[in-house]
Each structure stands twice: as structure tokens, then as C-alpha cells.
Amino acid sequence: MATRQRLARGICCFFAQQQSIALTVQHATGAMISAAQQSALAAHHHQAAPLLLRTAVAAFSRSLTTGAPSYNSSLSSLLREEVDYEKKNYVRPDQVSGGPPAPFKLTESPGDTLLSLSRTYKNEEISIDLHVNNQPSPPYEGEEGVDEEGITTVAFNVSVLKDGKMLVFECESDGSSVNINHVSLEPKEGLTSESMYSGPVFDELDDSLQRNFSTFLEERGITAELGEYLRFLIYDKEQREYQTWLSEVEKFVTK
Predict the structure, then answer these.
(1) Distance between CA 68 and CA 32 in Å, rounded?
(2) Is the pLDDT reported for residue 54 higher than 60?
(3) Which Pfam families match (predicted)?
(4) How many angstroms separate the Cα of 111 from the Cα of each of 86, 132, 198?
């Protein structure tokens, strides 16, 4: 979070400098042309007057072209500094370095914000999906519940598939527990219409039902330990994708 704020401040500062330079150039150009026009008027009976005006303006334009800072050069330098900073300070969290809690297997692809974990349990196929771009908004820095990496709560879906149907749990975890927000029973292909009934409001279910749904997930390995792993997994994935994005944008701007 802090690195993005630093980059944003740098880019804003860069554009402010560019605007200041543009205003200075505009004023200087006006003054130069005005002076040339006055000289031309003073010598309007002389044949060299139009040439004086054209020469003055052309010379000043050349000085602007060769002397003004390069837009692409300044932006690419700022991006390169951010790339170097990110790579220098990147450390893979210990919580994810050893992989997911057994027996889950992790699947991910570079450039794709989807992360998936899978396992089998008896005759069921268990899958966990979470997206980097579909996470709760982090609190502001300094608010309670934010650790030093800025990681708070992770949102994910758990699907339990058997007999052509799947029980889908919408969950969140702060690393100390797993909270269920919604439960739906869906076809294997998912809900085919937004108007299909997807289940009741979970908090309105009887307390004993809520507890037993939580136990149902725990038996399949959806625990606080897994929630802690997912919190740091989503953070690490976002950091790695951010580094790649910076590098690609820097290459694009430099060309």
C-alpha cells in the first residue's frame, strides 16, 4: 500500500512539473513573439521585417524542442525507480513459502488474478477460489486490525462438489477464524439465472445451523490456519503482479 502511494505521489509531482514547464513555455513564447512583432512593426518599411519575425520564432521553437525535459524519459525513470525498489524490498512471506496446508494444492498463472486450491474429501471435490481484484477494501493506515503488511481480511469461495451439484460457501477470514457470509446449492455449472433462488441470508439462520455449517467446512480443511495462509497468499500474489505491471509499463513508456 505504501509503495503505491509513493508512486502515485511521484506521478502527481511529475505531472505538476510538466504543467509548470508548459505554463512557463507558454508565457515565454508569448513574450518572444510579442517582442518580435514589435520589432517587425518598428521596421515595417524594411523588407527584412517578416524574416526577422519568422527567424525569431523558429529559433525559440528549436530551443524549446532541445531544452525541455522529455515526458517519456521522466516517467520511465520514475517507473524504473519503483521497479528497483519493489524488487529490492520484496520478501516472500513465511506464511506462504511452504505452500498451502496439506492436502490442498495451489493453482495459479502469471498475469491471472485468480488463485485456486483443490483437494478431495471422500467422494467430494473441494475447491477454493479467490481473486486479487475481488477483496474487501483495506482500512486506512493506522486503523485497528491492520498488520504491518496492510493485510486484513481475505474473501474466498469454497465449493463442495458431488453428484452433479455443489454447495458453495462465500467466506471471509482474518486469520483467526473463518466466517461464512452465504451458502447456496447450485448445479455443477453454477447458477444459470440471476433470478434463481440462491439461499437464505446466512445470519438469519438458526445459530445451531450456522455452527454446523462451520463444522462442515472445518472437517474439509477450511480452518483458521488455511485462512491465515490465504491472507498472505493474496498479498504475495498482488505484490508479484504489481512488480510485473510496473516492468511492463516501464518498457512500454521507454519504447
Answers:
(1) 16
(2) no
(3) MAM33
(4) 17, 11, 31
Residue 10's pLDDT band, with cuts at 50, 70 and 90, is: low
Neighbours of 34 (CB within 10 A): 10
Q: Is the pLDDT of residue 15 over 60?
A: no
Q: Name the least confident of 28-42, 145-159, 184-198.
A: 28-42
Give the chain as a 3 state SS string: CHHHHHHHHHHHHHHHHHHHHHHHHHHHHHHHHHHHHHHHHHCCCCCCHHHHHHHHHHHHHHHHHHHCCCHHHHHHHHHHHHHHHHHHHCCCCHHHHCCCCCCCEEECCCCCCEEEEEEEECCEEEEEEEECCCCCCCCCCCCCCCCCCCCCCEEEEEEEEECCEEEEEEEEECCCCEEEEEEEEEECCCCCCCCCCCCCCHHHCCHHHHHHHHHHHHHCCCCHHHHHHHHHHHHHHHHHHHHHHHHHHHHHHHC
Largest CA distance in the chain: 102
> Of 117, 115, 146, 149, which Cα lies nearest the Cα of 132?
115
Going by C-alpha positions, the residue among 171, 159, 90, 77 that lies closest to residue 125 is: 159
Asked if residue 166 has pLDDT above 80, the reply is yes
8 A C-beta contact, residue 152 and residue 138: yes
For residue 95, give the nearest of 175, 160, 22 by alpha carbon. 175
What proportion of the chain, given as a percentage, has pLDDT over 90? 57
Identity of the residue numbered 191? L
pTM: 0.71
More confident position, 71 or 249: 249
Cα angle value 29/37/27 (rounded, 5°): 20
